Amino acid sequence: MATPTKQDLMKLPDNLPVPQDDGAGDHLTGLWLPSIALKSTLAEGVDLSLLRGRNVVYAYPMSARPDVPLPAGWDQIPGARGCTPQAVTFEDQKDVVRALGADVYGLSTQRHEEQREFTDRIGLSFPLLSDADFKLTDALRLPTIEVEGTRMLKRITLIIRDGVIEKFFYPVFPSTRAAGDVIEWLRQNPLQTERPREQTVTLYTKNNCVHCLSAKQLLQRRDVRYVEINVENEPNAMLEMVAKSGRKTVPQIFLGEHYVGGADELFQVLNA
Which of 153, 9, 27 is nearest to 67 (CA)? Predict the structure, then answer.
């Protein structure tokens, strides 16, 4: 097997297979990110769920090294090739992305040490985040592939606003178009506009309810806006809650029309 050179890694071969949309990202828009600290190449740790404003997270399979052969058949895996030129493109365009109100993060399931080597070698000034234990990947059900016994992320780009996934791009092909797609979308959706598809959190509560208070405090810590309906103070609220949830206990929590459950389920969603 030929060992790739640095020039090889920067150049995308002709006739690479085009990945197809298998629907693996269709559930992502509107999801809250769980609170998970990820090792970063530029900081002690980054919890994407706590970042305010807009943040662009591009996930990629793996960064190759010029002195290590690529996995067998790598170029024949749709969407696999192109992590180095994708990173360089985001580095070149990061100031444009920042001017449009967003910061850039890379994400892979490689070890922190591998990401540091890659960052130092190609000169990245934005952080790469390591999800080597797949906590974030599995919590969000991000698309993955397995190559030579190693599980890794498929290429997907997320735009996250205040801890909620606002937009995703999947599949991403070729890899060098990812930054351009993000910039075009940010220009068309400036921050002063309403968040697309953002859904209201509704809590049915009672007076002196400890679990209701805990749920509200969690939402407040995460800066999630919510509407509270006190079933003791508002006529017909109890009947409405039971009709929607099938339960008489409180709190009962909804994200838009989606039924989340009680306080325990809310904690699982936000802290998975």
Answer: 9
Identify the pLDDT of residue 140: 94
Among the listed residues 172, 177, 4, 151, the one whose alpha carbon sits nearest the alpha carbon of residue 75 = 4
| 51 DSSP 8-state letter | -
Question: What's the start-to-end Cα distance of the chain, in Å?
Answer: 41
CA-CA distance, 256 to 168, in Å (whole number)?
20
Distances (CA, A) of 172 to 11, 82, 122: 17, 10, 22
Distance CA 156, CA 151 (A): 15
For residue 18, list its beta bridge partners.
Answer: none
71-98 burial: b if 16+ Cβ within 10 Å, else e? beebeebebbbbbbbbbbbbbebbeebe
pLDDT digits (tens, 9 = 90+) for 162-174: 889 999 999 999 9
**CA atoms 25, 80, 38, 195: torsion sign:** negative
Percent of the chain with pLDDT over 70: 93
Contacts of 61 (CB under 8 A, 6+ apart): 80, 83, 108, 145, 147, 152, 153, 154, 155
Q: Give the pLDDT confidence of 7-33 residue by residue, as tens digits.
A: 466 678 888 999 999 999 999 998 889
168, β-bridge pairs: 158
pTM of the prediction? 0.72
Helices and strands counted in the chain (H then E): 8, 13
Say yes or no to pLDDT of 65 above 90.
no
Q: Which tens digit of pLDDT belongs to each residue from 104-115?
A: 999 999 999 999
Domains delineated in the chain: 16-189 (3.40.30.10), 201-267 (3.40.30.10)
